[in-house]
Automatic annotation (TrEMBL):
Keywords: Hydrolase. It comes from Microbacterium marinilacus. Pfam families: Abhydrolase_1 (PF00561). PANTHER family: HYDROLASE, PUTATIVE (AFU_ORTHOLOGUE AFUA_2G14860)-RELATED, MONOACYLGLYCEROL LIPASE. Residues 10-244 form the AB hydrolase-1 domain. GO terms for molecular function: hydrolase activity. This is Alpha/beta hydrolase. It comes from the Bacteria.
Length: 259
């Protein structure tokens, strides 16, 4: 498993989602590292971590691993910032595996049913077929899928950063395998427990997120009654690239409030 630490100070752990990696968080991590020890990690099956076919990469496995990883790092109560299905990973670690946080910031997260696009459903049913697509067709489908997560459009270098881990034979198989293992049951079993979270919680959401629409932000704020909510206008699901300055400022302000 690939991981990195930047800066010094109170610990902050950044969790990515799918089909992303810690590379999506790195510019934000550099900004936060001026006052914090910022931990980045690629979940198994993603980024620079192992993509071995015999490694489970479902939300249940990732949540248990995250709680164990905090123990290995010797971090008892970090600030946690999670994006996409990293939100479900953090929530499962907190509610099912004994992890405790100093605070939790949920950024356009997978946390409430329903989730998963029609593309997700199609791949789940035919993952083996998709894994055998010719490389050029796979790349075209992958790029079109990822472009749909941005509201403001992706620069060529950002798109390349996002697709690169999935382009070789191992990466292509891993891309479809992680979708095949996605299961709403793993969020449904914890949804009723969100009110148990007593750490400070902040929710950040792009108003133009078409992957996980903004109504989920309001539903999540209702499920965690003490949570605060900030909406970022004109940002899509890839809020790190659509509104990088707004997001970095929001996270810096949040971490200053909960120090």
């Amino acid at each position: 498993m690939a991981w990195d630490r930047l800066g010094s100070g109170p610990p902050v752990v950044l969790l990515h989602g799918t089909p992303w990696s810690s590379a999506l968080w790195r510019p934000v991590a550099r900004a936060l590292s001026r006052r914090h020890s910022v931990y980045l990690w690629d979940m198994p099956g993603y980024g620079a971590s192992s993509k071995a076919a015999d490694h489970d990469v479902d939300l249940g496995t990732q949540g248990e691993l995250f709680a164990h990883l905090l123990e290995q790092w010797g971090i008892e109560r970090p600030h946690v910032v999670a994006h996409d299905f990293g939100g479900a990973v953090a929530l499962r670690a907190r509610l099912l595996h004994g992890a405790r946080f100093a605070s939790l910031c949920l950024v356009d997260v997978v946390a409430l049913s329903p989730w998963g696009s029609p593309f997700f459903a199609l791949v789940r049913e035919h993952a083996e077929v998709f894994s055998q697509l010719p490389p050029a067709i796979h790349r075209g489908a992958l790029e079109a899928y990822i472009r749909g997560a941005s509201h403001r459009g992706l620069r060529d270098d950002d798109l390349e950063m996002l697709v690169r881990p999935w382009l070789d034979d191992v990466g292509q198989a891993a891309f479809y395998r992680q979708i095949a293992q996605a299961d709403e049951r793993l969020t449904r079993e914890i949804e009723a427990r969100y009110g148990e979270i007593d750490e400070p919680v902040h929710i950040v959401w792009g108003t133009a997120d078409t992957w996980i629409p903004v109504d989920r932000a309001h539903r999540l704020a209702e499920a965690i009654p003490h949570a605060s909510l900030t909406l970022v206008e004109g940002a899509g699901h890839l809020i790190q690239l659509d509104a990088p300055s707004e997001l970095a400022t929001e996270l810096s302000d949040w971490l200053a409030r909960v120090r």
